[in-house]
Amino acid sequence: MEKKIGKNDPCWCGSGKKYKFCHCSFDEKIEEFRRKGHKVPPRKIIKTPEQIAGIKESCKINIAVLDYVGERIKEGISTEEINRIVHEKTLQLGGIPAPLNYNGFPKSVCTSVNSQVCHGIPSEEVILKDGDIINVDVSTIYNGYFSDSSRMYLVGEVSEEKKKLVQVTKESLEIGLQQVKPWGFLGDMGQAIHDYARKNGYSVVREIGGHGVGLEFHEEPWVSYVSKKGREMVMAPGMIFTIEPMVNMGTNEIFIDDEDDWTVYTADGEPSAQWEIMVLVTEEGYEVLCY
Ligand code: MF3
Ligand code: CO
User: Fold this and answer.
1) What's the mean pLDDT in 128-146?
2) Each residue's pLDDT tens digit, 191-212
3) Ligand 1 nearest-atom number relative to CA 137
4) Which ligand is nearest to the CA of 140?
């Protein structure tokens, strides 16, 4: 239970406005959803305009780093080379790579090739070859604010089958995005993504999801892409979370490499694709912060 605020007290969001003119009706709405048994966002994940501005600056770096990777990625380079590119560019732009040393992660970026679903560790031994698909997942800390987004890159001549997987994964994310609006549910988005992927003959990873982000690398809520319409947390203005479905060509079953304890693989060795964006819930709908 949050502390009761008087109507004329300053709002808890830090806007400096009186509560009755600021988040009072917001809180009433939240309370109504809570009473009906829905999961509701805690105050600490509702960002202030100042925090949103800071997070957007962090996102600018994340986007610039992904663009930079896109210009350099090619057949014959190692994923360690991508790590160097990301590390150096992030520092040059004044940021810190968030993955480095995060829960012991040893590198500055995740690079996941073909049947690697996510959290691949860059290595001199992994050389990109003609026909590979790779996810490069970049996360930045700038001025204390976190950003996180990832893209797929095609190496050389990629088969139609794999290209379609990459394309459908991106489309599924965009279809999910259309469901983001204030006072909707995260499950509306999750189901839209899952339905679209399945309609195309693919499966969606269940165990790993998205997350709130901005003040920390991973915040509440945990975000599923196999959830159901009308379920999961209510989306409220000021929330920022990732949309990052992992879509598999074959089975949705996965396993974690027991040597490095990080890299996630598809159980059947079939390819997997992922795109990740950061989205802000606004009064009107949504705003994409990082793509
Ligand atoms: N960027 C990943 C995500 O989307 C998190 C990777 S954690 C790391 O949530 F330690 F592997 F970097
Ligand atoms: Co993420």
Assistant:
1) 99
2) 999 999 999 999 999 999 999 9
3) 1
4) 1
pLDDT at 52 over 90: yes
Give the domains, in start order, of the chain with CATH numbers: 39-290 (3.90.230.10)
Q: Examine the pLDDT at 13 and tell me if it is beyond 60.
A: yes
Please state the pTM of the whole predicted model: 0.97
User: Per the annotation, where are the binding residues for a divalent metal cation?
Assistant: 137, 148, 211, 244, 276
Atom 1 in ligand 1: residue holding the nearest Cα: 137
Residue positions forming the annotated binding site: 119, 137, 148, 211, 218, 244, 276
Q: What is the pLDDT of residue 14?
A: 86
The finding on whether 210 has its CB within 6 A of some atom of ligand 1 is no
Q: Please, is 279 exposed, middle or buried when counting C-beta atoms within 10 Å of its C-beta (0-12, 13-18, 19+)? A: buried
- Say what the pLDDT of residue 3 is: 66
The pLDDT value recorded for residue 4 is: 79
